[in-house]
């Protein structure tokens, strides 16, 4: 029992632990098999010798806290910056190394190695995000490690791995219930008979929500996800060869809103929701088809994927007030609710009085959008000895198409006795357009072993053809086509000092494209990124420290409803700043202490220091910038983040406590815009999880999120103060067979 417990603990130490080894580490052992190609990073209990910061969070770590919220998982990864929004992680805002977290649009998001955003090139804002509960691993790539995972290479890439088809009969059920009407029902079954294997997995998660809507009503969500995989093994004596078909469907209805609170109302009740948001509703569905072919032997392997993703959504939500041709600014109303100009609007929003004038009618917008993303990609690993040096060649090519079609409309409502009532006027069409991109991407990497140094030379190419078409009646003549071509080099290396220690370095060029709609006067985001790090691994102890510096030639940001109401009449417009720079330190450490023959104490620590600022003065119409001076900080970038995970484990039970600290963040840079000089509040969150193994009849678990029930303002965007999730309880039961 002790040995089996030891093996479990060595893998399960903490979310922040980096127990991974890249494919480049397989120079001596040859190529990975197909299941290792699905999960880009492998793992082993030895010193990792890949160059660059890459982090693996495996299934055992994910199971410890059973988080449904991607934000809570990624807080434990150094170098990640997050702007929370709804408390459940329904629409995450994730950035790496100082890149804006807004709708995760500056990181490359993948599922099973394939781009998963609704339209990663044309409209990268991730209004769809895969369900965290169906993932068995997450991989985070930063610095040169991300050069092969475009299009966005300034910040990095996130790959989420779904469950693989098991080699023999296997299944499980997971049911849970908790605070605020929370329930989870999850199950899967799969097997392999001879050369044929299959897997079916289904999940439903729902909650009534923790916010309290004035007048009553749900503020929660209902999410479903079903996935099926089918695999056939054609391997023979010469080649390993596998084909796999993956089909999935997901949907969500959530009573979510962009409408927050005034600071004064937040102090009285952070979970309050104004009655004006009673009709706000997000409704979406997502379909995916992916076909994968793998072939390889001791000298090479090739993985080819063909994919198609379709995403449709309708988000009906409060946009503002009817005020002539311009909607009144909700952010201004909630920032200054007591001014003579704003107090009447505030009283209508909160239902304190009825709508009396035409300009006091509330405008609800339905942002209907249809997306597709499709393509084919192929990746080669080739293992060769040239000029008495070991080489691992990694070459890839992808042809990708994606599109967004907007059909935005607005309707006018009156506030009448605490209820929204349609004023009977016709629905107004606002944005009716299409953006589309065709992209050819190639990358080349060669890892050369030069004694104790593994040197990697990389090059990525992105060749984009984009077009925009205004499809509104009478405006069909408004259109644009443009091309973007760029080569992005990188160089990185790992120097092995001993079996347990080494240091690494890297330099790469970062890139974020502009949207098809933007004129050539809006420039791409471009940067030169540097990192220097050291790594130690010995007897269950691990330590990694990385210093990074991003020299951004041209920072680019975009307007969206999730940014601010000032963007309502300039939706998806993009803006350039002057030069900017981000410098930081990433530190992660772990060790497992043996308390006795029956108890272990695993501890892990993750710390990030980040300082991002503009290098020159400029003035911008972008709602987060305004009049900026050199040295002004980048918005929504905490200077300090710390995560400490402490556990205790025995043969059949374990308890884990994870504590996170996030320092305050600037809500805007510069002067002259709303929220200038305003910050979020520093936040300390403690989560607890415990489980007990019942043997053959399964196991039970209990968890508490936000044990201290400490709620703070995590953001005031787009309209008013928004709270972190309050204390919540969940109890569940799992049975595996």
Helix content: under 10%
> What is the CA–CA distance across the termini?
20 Å
Number of contiguous helices = 7
User: What is the CATH top level name?
Assistant: Mainly Beta
CATH architecture: Beta Barrel
Q: By helix and strand content, what is the structural category?
A: mainly beta
Low-confidence stretches: 1-30
Name a few traits of the molecule.
mainly beta; single chain; 737 residues; disordered N terminus; 5-stranded mixed beta sheet; 22-stranded antiparallel β-barrel; 38 strands; Maltoporin, Chain A
Explain this structure:
- By secondary structure, this protein is mainly beta.
- It has a single domain, classed as Beta Barrel (Maltoporin, Chain A), CATH 2.40.170.20.
- The chain has seven helices and 38 strands.
- The strands form seven sheets. The chain has a 22-stranded antiparallel beta barrel. A five-stranded mixed beta sheet has the order 1-6-7-4-5.
- It is globular and about 80 Å long.
- The two termini are 20 Å apart.
């Amino acid at each position: 029992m002790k040995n089996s417990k030891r093996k479990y603990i060595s893998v399960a130490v903490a979310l922040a632990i980096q127990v991974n080894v890249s494919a480049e580490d397989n120079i001596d052992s040859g190529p990975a098999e197909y299941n290792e190609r699905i999960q880009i990073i492998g793992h082993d209990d030895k010193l990792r010798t890949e160059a660059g910061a890459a982090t693996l969070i495996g299934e055992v770590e994910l199971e410890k806290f059973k988080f449904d919220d991607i934000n809570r998982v990624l807080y434990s990864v150094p170098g990640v910056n997050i702007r929370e929004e709804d408390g459940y992680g329904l629409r995450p805002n994730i950035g790496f190394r100082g890149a804006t977290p807004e709708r995760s649009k500056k990181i490359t998001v993948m599922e099973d190695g394939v781009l998963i955003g609704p339209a990663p090139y044309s409209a990268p804002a991730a209004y769809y995000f895969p369900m965290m509960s169906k993932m068995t691993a997450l991989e985070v790539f930063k610095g040169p490690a991300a050069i092969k995972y475009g299009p966005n290479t300034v910040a990095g890439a996130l790959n989420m791995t779904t469950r693989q088809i098991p080699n023999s009969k296997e299944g499980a059920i997971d049911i849970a219930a908790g605070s605020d009407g929370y329930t989870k029902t999850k199950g899967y079954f799969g097997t392999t008979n001879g050369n044929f294997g299959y897997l079916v997995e289904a999940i439903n998660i729902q909650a009534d929500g923790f916010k309290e809507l004035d007048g009553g009503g749900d503020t929660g969500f209902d999410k479903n996800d079903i996935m099926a995989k089918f695999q056939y093994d054609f391997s023979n004596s010469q080649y390993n060869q596998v084909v796999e078909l993956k089909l999935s469907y997901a949907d969500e209805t959530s009573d979510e809103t962009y409408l927050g609170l005034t600071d004064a109302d937040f102090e009285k009740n952070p979970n309050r929701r104004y009655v004006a948001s009673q009709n706000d509703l997000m409704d979406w569905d997502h379909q995916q088809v992916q076909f994968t072919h793998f072939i390889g032997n001791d000298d090479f392997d090739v993985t080819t994927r063909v994919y198609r993703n379709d995403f449709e959504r309708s988000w009906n939500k409060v946009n503002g007030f009817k005020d002539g041709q311009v909607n009144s600014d909700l952010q201004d109303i909630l920032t200054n609710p007591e001014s003579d100009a704003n107090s009447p609007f505030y009283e209508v929003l909160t239902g304190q009085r009825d709508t009396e004038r035409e300009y006091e009618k509330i405008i609800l917008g339905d942002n209907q959008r249809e997306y597709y993303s499709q393509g084919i990609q192929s990746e080669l690993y080739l293992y060769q000895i040239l000029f008495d040096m070991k080489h691992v060649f990694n070459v890839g090519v992808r042809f990708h198409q994606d599109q967004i079609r907007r059909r935005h409309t607005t309707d006018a409502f009156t506030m009448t006795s605490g209820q929204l009532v349609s004023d009977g006027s016709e629905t107004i069409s606002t944005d009716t357009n299409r953006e589309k991109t065709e992209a050819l991407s190639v990358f080349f990497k060669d890892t050369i072993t030069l004694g104790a140094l593994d040197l990697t030379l990389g090059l990525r190419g992105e060749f984009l053809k984009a077009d925009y078409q205004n499809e509104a009646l009478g405006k069909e003549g408004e259109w644009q086509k443009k091309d973007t071509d760029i080569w992005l080099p990188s160089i990185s290396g790992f120097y092995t000092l001993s079996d347990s220690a080494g240091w690494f370095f890297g330099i790469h060029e970062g890139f974020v494209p502009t949207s098809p709609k933007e004129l050539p006067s809006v420039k791409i985001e471009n940067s030169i990124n540097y990192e220097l790090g050291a790594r130690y691994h010995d007897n269950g102890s691990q330590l990694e420290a990385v210093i990074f510096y991003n020299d951004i030639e041209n920072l680019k940001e975009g307007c969206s409803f999730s940014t601010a109401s000032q963007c309502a009449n300039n939706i998806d417009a993009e803006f350039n700043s002057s030069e900017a720079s981000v410098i930081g330190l990433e530190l992660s450490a772990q060790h497992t202490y043996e308390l006795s023959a029956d108890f272990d104490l695993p501890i892990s620590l993750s710390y990030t220091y980040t300082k991002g600022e503009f290098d020159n003065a400029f003035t911008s119409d972008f709602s987060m910038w305004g009049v900026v001076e050199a040295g002004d900080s980048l918005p929504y970038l905490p200077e300090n983040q710390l995560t400490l995970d402490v556990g205790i484990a025995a043969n059949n039970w374990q308890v884990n406590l994870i504590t996170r600290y996030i320092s305050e963040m600037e809500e805007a840079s510069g002067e002259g815009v709303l929220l200038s000089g305003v910050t979020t509040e520093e936040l300390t969150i403690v989560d607890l999880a415990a489980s007990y193994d019942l043997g053959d009849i399964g196991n039970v678990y209990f968890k508490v999120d936000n044990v201290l029930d400490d709620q703070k303002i995590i953001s005031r965007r787009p309209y008013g103060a928004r709270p972190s999730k309050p204390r919540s309880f969940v109890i569940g039961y799992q049975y595996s067979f």
